[in-house]
Design brief:
This protein has 399 residues and is mostly helical. It has 17 helices and 2 strands.
Length: 399
C-alpha cells in the first residue's frame, strides 16, 4: 500500500529500521535469559516439556485473529498431520492410506510454503490483478522522520515483545510472529483504521516481530536444546556434531561460544540494516513487475522450494494440496499459523507425552505432580478460559 502511494522508499526505511530494532531487542533478551534458563534446564523433564508445548499451541490460538476455538482446532489439525507416516516407537505406519510416499510422513516446509505462499497465489488468482504496477522508478532509501519514529516507540516495543516471546515458544518462527504481531497491532493501534492503506504501523508490527524471533528462538535452543524455529534446528545439529550439548553444560563449560554467538548476531543485525539501505533500489524494482508474472514466479519458487527439501516429487503435490486447503481455511475464517506450528511441535509433543507416560507407568497424574508442568498447564487453562469469561461478562453487561 505504501508503494502504491509513492512511498516505497519510506516503506523500505520503516522495514529496515524495524528489523534492526527487533533484532537488537531480542538479542538483549537472549543475553539475559539464555544463561539463566540453561542453569534451570536440568529440572525440565518430559512432563514439563509437554506442558510447555501445550501452552505454546494455546498461546498461538489465543492471539490468532478470529475465534480462539478455531485456532485451537487448527493447532490440533497440525498435531494430527505429524502422525502421518511411520511411528518412531512401534514402527507401524499411520494414516498413510497405503501410499508408500506417505510412509516417511509429511515434511513441514512443503506444507508451510503451500499454506502461506501458494494459498495467497490461489486466492489472488480468483480476483482481478492490479491493472498497473506501482511506479518505483525513483525509489531509494528514506529513513522515517525522528518524530514519526518516536511516536511509534510503543508499537516497536509491543512488536518486539511479541516476536521474542513467540520465538521462545518451541517450533514457532518468523511467519507466526509476523501474523500474530500484525493481528495484535491491527486491534490495538490508535491508527488501526488506516491498516492496509499505507499505515506504517503494519510494517512496524510485521518487520519488528519478524526479526525479534531470531533472538527469541535461540533461547530454548541454547538453554534447553529445543529448536525455536527451522533455522535453529540446523544450529542444534551443528552443535551436536561438534560434541556440544545445549543447556547447562554449554553455558558452564563453553561460555565463549555463547559470547561469540551474541557478538555475531549483533554484527549481523547492523549488516542487515546496511544492506537494506544500500540495496533498496534493487529490492523496490520487484514491485514494478506485473502482478501475474510475480505470482507465476512465486508459484514456481514455491514448488522448487518444496521439492528441494527432500528431493521427493510427492512434496510438490503436498505443497499444492496445502495451498488449496489454505484457501479453504481462509474462506472459513480459520487461522493457518496454528496448523504449521502444530506440525512443527507435533513430533516433540507426542514423544514427550509417550516418554512421560511410560516413565509414570500410564499414570497421567504424574504430569500434574510435576510443579513446572502444573504451573504451565495452569497458565494454559487460564488462556483458554479467558475468552469465555470475557464473553460471559460482556453478555451480562449487555443484558
Amino acid at each position: 500500500p505504501m508503494a502504491k502511494a509513492g512511498q516505497a522508499d519510506l516503506a523500505i526505511g520503516w522495514a529496515t529500521l524495524s528489523s534492526l530494532v527487533g533484532g537488537v531487542f531480542s538479542l538483549a533478551v537472549l543475553i539475559v535469559a539464555a544463561p539463566l534458563l540453561a542453569r534451570v534446564s536440568v529440572a525440565f523433564g518430559p512432563a514439563a516439556i509437554f506442558a510447555i508445548i501445550v501452552f505454546a499451541l494455546t498461546c498461538i490460538a489465543w492471539v490468532s485473529s478470529g475465534s480462539t476455538i478455531k485456532g485451537l482446532l487448527a493447532g490440533v489439525i497440525g498435531l494430527w498431520l505429524t502422525t502421518i507416516g511411520t511411528d518412531d516407537l512401534t514402527g507401524y505406519t499411520r494414516f498413510d492410506f497405503g501410499q508408500p510416499a506417505l510412509m516417511g510422513g509429511l515434511s513441514l516446509i512443503p506444507v508451510l510454503i503451500g499454506i502461506f505462499a501458494l494459498a495467497e497465489v490461489f486466492h489472488r488468482a480468483g480476483h482481478y490483478f492490479a491493472a498497473k504496477p506501482p511506479d518505483v522508478s525513483n525509489v531509494g532509501f528514506r529513513m522515517p522522520a525522528l518524530g514519526e519514529t518516536t511516536l511509534r516507540i510503543p508499537q516497536f516495543f509491543r512488536a518486539s515483545v511479541i516476536g521474542t516471546f513467540i520465538g521462545i515458544l518451541p517450533g514457532t518462527g518468523a511467519t507466526a510472529a509476523t501474523f500474530v504481531s500484525y493481528s495484535d497491532l491491527r486491534r490495538s493501534s490508535p491508527r488501526r483504521e488506516n491498516f492496509g492503506k499505507g499505515e506504517p504501523d503494519g510494517l512496524v508490527a510485521s518487520e519488528t516481530a519478524n526479526n525479534a524471533v531470531t533472538g527469541g528462538a535461540l533461547i530454548p535452543t541454547l538453554a534447553l536444546g529445543i529448536p525455536g524455529d527451522g533455522g535453529t534446528v540446523v544450529l542444534l545439529g551443528v552443535l551436536t556434531i561438534q560434541g556440544l550439548t545445549p543447556g547447562f553444560d554449554l553455558a558452564q563449560n563453553n561460555p565463549h561460544i555463547l559470547t561469540g554467538a551474541f557478538l555475531l548476531i549483533l554484527i549481523a543485525n547492523f549488516i542487515m540494516f546496511g544492506l537494506g539501505a544500500l540495496g533498496s533500489r534493487i529490492f523496490a524494482k520487484i514491485l514494478a513487475m506485473p502482478e501475474p508474472i510475480l505470482m507465476a514466479f512465486i508459484m514456481l519458487f514455491s514448488f522448487v522450494g518444496a521439492f528441494v527439501v527432500r528431493g521427493n516429487p510427492v512434496d510438490v503435490i503436498i505443497c499444492a494440496a496445502a495451498g488449496v486447503v489454505g484457501v479453504i481455511l481462509r474462506f472459513a475464517k480459520y487461522p493457518v499459523a496454528p496448523i504449521v506450528i502444530g506440525m512443527a511441535l507435533g513430533t516433540t509433543f507426542e514423544g514427550k507425552l509417550r516418554q512421560g507416560m511410560i516413565s509414570a507407568q500410564g499414570d497421567f497424574m504424574e504430569f500434574i505432580s510435576d510443579p513446572i508442568a502444573l504451573g504451565v498447564l495452569g497458565l494454559t487453562v487460564a488462556f483458554v478460559a479467558a475468552p469465555f469469561i470475557g464473553s460471559r461478562r460482556s453478555g451480562e453487561k449487555n443484558g
